[in-house]
Amino acid sequence: MDWCGVLAVNKPAGSTSRQIVDKVARIVHPAKTGHAGTLDPLATGVLVVAVGSATRLISHIQQGRKQYLAEFRLGQRSDTDDVEGRIEEGGDWTGITESALTEALKAYVGDVSQVPPQFSAVHVNGQRAYALARRGETVELQARTVQVHSIQLTRFAPPLLELQIECGSGTYIRSIGRDLGEDLGCGALMTSLRRNAVGPFTLEKSVPFDELNHDRVHAAIQPALEAVANLPRRTMTPEEIVAIRQGRALSLGNIPALESGAEIALVDGTDLLLGIARLESERHRLQPVIVFPAR
Question: Is 215 in the active site?
């Protein structure tokens, strides 16, 4: 079978993202596989696995908005910023009110400067930060700007609080809890995390990990076009399909007015994704940047 598409898997707590990708890989062998956005073993929810030629779209999938439901505990800190690390007591949380918490959360919406956790996959001098942290080394990680679209306080039962968060790529939910706890003067750590969506890939359409088999994957895998559903589309003529597979650029044709550098999904008459092109307005052309092989 010629596998190509995107599969959303509902990851259970305790499993690793690698274990899930490996199980999918065994089912779709010899097709390639790859995931878009790691979930820590503690976390549950949507892990997006690209299959076949759709692995070339992983960077596009990663840019999709993420939706999370996270629980935090006030009054504690840990070296991992969650309950799986070495926990120590923080400050007094008993005077914190719901209104004070809601007010403090406003600082975490928008373009936010955030330092990743010590136990994270960030590269430091060619090594992962978590590898250094496991050896007992403390490294100074640089703050970076992430985009948080919204935060809602969905439950407050002190010392526990639950947040619904919508954010962009590269955002560490653990860091939001850690920094919020420091702002409140008592510390905080994450106790649970569930990812409800990555772009158009939702928990409701995800296959439970323990139900992964050939038939379930075949039924649930979504067309590669879903990974770039946000892009404008250009329906290709048979002549244009030949041209892009030969690496040739296309005339602009009938496409909406877009900025130079904008990406456009190239599809055939059945809405099968053939590739991605970038608009080069100064040359009045579309330059293919990803081209799927003929199937």
Answer: no
